[in-house]
Amino acid sequence: MPVVSVKRDSLFRELGKEYTEEEFDQLCFDYGIELDDVEEEEGEVIYKIDIPANRYDLLCLEGLARALNVFNGNEKLPVFKTVAPADPGPTRITVHKETQQIRPFVVSAVLRGLNLTEESYRSCLDLQDQLHRNLCRRRTLVAIGTHDLDNIEGPFTYEALAPEDIRFVHLFETKEMNAREILDDFRVNPERRALKPYTDIIYDSPVYPVIYDKNRQVVSLPPIINGSVSKMSKDTKNMFIECTATDMTKAKIVLNTIVAMFARYCDTPECVETVDVVYNEPVLPGGSTEPISNMTCPDLSTRAADADVARVQSTIGAEVPAQDMRQLVERMQLGPATLNDDETVLTVTVPVTRSDILHEVDIAEDIAIAYGYNNIVKTVPVSHRPGKELPVNLLSDLLRYEISRQGYMECMTLGLCSLDENFKYLNREDPGNLAVTLANPKTIEFQCVRTSLLPGVVKTLGENMSLKISEGIRLFEVSDVVLRDPRTPGEKDIGCRNERHLAALHAGLASSFETIHGLVDRIMQVLSVVPAKEYCPEAHDSSLVQTLISDGASIGEYKLVSRDEDRMFFPGRGATIMWKPHDATEYTELGSFGVLHVEVLQNFSIPFPCTVLEMTIEPFVRE
Predict the structure, then answer these.
(1) For 303-375, CATH number?
(2) Is the pTM of this model over 0.85?
(3) pLDDT exceeds 70 at position 222
C-alpha cells in the first residue's frame, strides 16, 4: 500500500480540529486507512498514513483532508468546472504521427491564477512522485510534466525525434546537451541516480518523445526530465500540465487527479482551463473502437453508477435502510445519490477523483465504511457445510508417504511442456487428438498440457546430473495429466479431463527392470490389489491372499504382460500393468513400466540406465 507523509499540524489545520494521536488513529480506521507511523523531522511531527492502492485522490495532503472533512460532514465535495480559453491557439498541442512509435498519447490542462505556498508547492511535487510510483507504473504508462506557463509560449508540438536532434538545457544543468548525452549522464552520474531507472524506458528507441513550444524551446523530454526554461516554483501563477502516456485511460485519471487536487488554489477555485489536443494522424486508444483525431481535456464531468440495494445489504451483511444509504455514500464523496420509485436501486454520482468505483461492490464497500465496520453484527451462517479432503487427494497423499518410504524423492514438475518432450523425446507418436495444446505459446517449452508425468520427471533428472549416482537416484511424482476426451452426455463438454497419475524413476549404474518391478508390487500391495493366478500362482494361492479375498479386503487383482511394441522401453524390458476387480471378467490397463530406451536417454542427456513407472490411480479412488 502507498504511504503518504503529511505534516500533522498542516493536516489538523485543514481538518479544523486538533486530534490526539489515538483519536486520529481511530478516525483513520473508521475511514479505511491506517496511521502507520509517527515521526519527527526538523521539529515537525510527520504522520505516515497507509492508503489503499486504488485511492489516488488520497495521495496528497489536499485530497486526504478533503476526504476526511467530507466524511466528518464538515465539507461538501466541490463541483469541478472547466472553462475554454478565449483563444485556444496559444495552449493547443499538435501531436506528430512519429510519437506512435514510442508514447502515442498526451493530455493536458492549465491552472490559472495559482496562489501557492512553499508547502502546497511541495505537496504538488510529492503527488506527482506518488502517482509516478503507483498508477503510472514508474513512468512506463504515464509521465507527468508541470510547467510555468508564463516562461513558455504556445501553441505546442509533441514530436518524436532522433535523440541527437534534441538539444536543450534540462532542469539540473546549465549547459546544453542532446538527449542521448542527457540519458548517458543520468545512467552514470551518482547525483542523478534517482532518474537512472527511467532511462531504460526510451534509451534504446530510435526516436525520443519531446514537447516543443512555439519558439522551439524544449518544454519536456518525457518520461525523463523537463527543460529548465519552464521550471516551476512556488511563485508560479499559471501552471501548464501535460501527461504523455502509453495508456490513455491512465493518463486521463492522472491529469484529473492533479487538477482536482490543486485547482483549489486558483483565483477561481475548482476551475480548470481546457487544452485542445490535435493528432496529425488519428490514433486508437486501448479499449476503444473509435480512433481519435482531436480532443479537449480535461473532462471533469461526473458519471452515474447503480447499485442494487438488496445486493449491497447482502454484501456487507447488514440491513442498512435504502434511505440511509443515500446519506452514507455522500460521506464517501459519491453524492448526490438517488433511489428509484420502489427503492431497490441506488444511483450514486461518481466524481473524477473516484476512478476506483468500477462496480457495485465498490459502492457497497464505501457504504460499509460509512456505516461502520464495528456496527456490522457478527452472525452464524444458517447452513453448516463442513469441508473435507477430496478422495483422490487423500489417496495421493497416502501413496506419496508409502513411495517416499521406499527411498524415492518427490518432485513437482510443470503442467506445461513442449510437444517434443511429451511425445518425440519418449519415442512416442503424437496422434494429434490426445494433448491439449496452447493456441499461442510464448515459448517452445510450453506448447501443450502434459499427457504424461514422465517428461517432467525424466527432465528433472537430466537437469540434475551433478547428483551422486553411486547408490542410484530415485524420483517420483503424483499429479494430474490432462487428456482430450469427448464428455458423455450430461457432463460439461469442455473436451478434456484431468486424470491423476503416479510416476517413478530409478536411475543409476545398477538400475534394472527388477528394481522398478519391486516398487510396482509394493504399490499394488498397499492398494489391496493381489497378484492374479495366471501371473503368480504361488502368491495368489497363499493363505494370506486368499484370506484377503474372502474377507473382502482385496479390491481386485493384477497381472503384467509384455510391452514390446512401446519404443519408449528397451526391447524385452517393458511391461503393461493390467488389473480388474474380483467381480469383473475383463482386465483394463493401468500403466506401464520398464527400462528406458537408449534413444530416450540421449534425448534427455542422461548417460546411465533408467527404469520408469507410470500408472493411473483413478480406479482406486474410493468415495
Answers:
(1) 3.30.56.10
(2) no
(3) yes
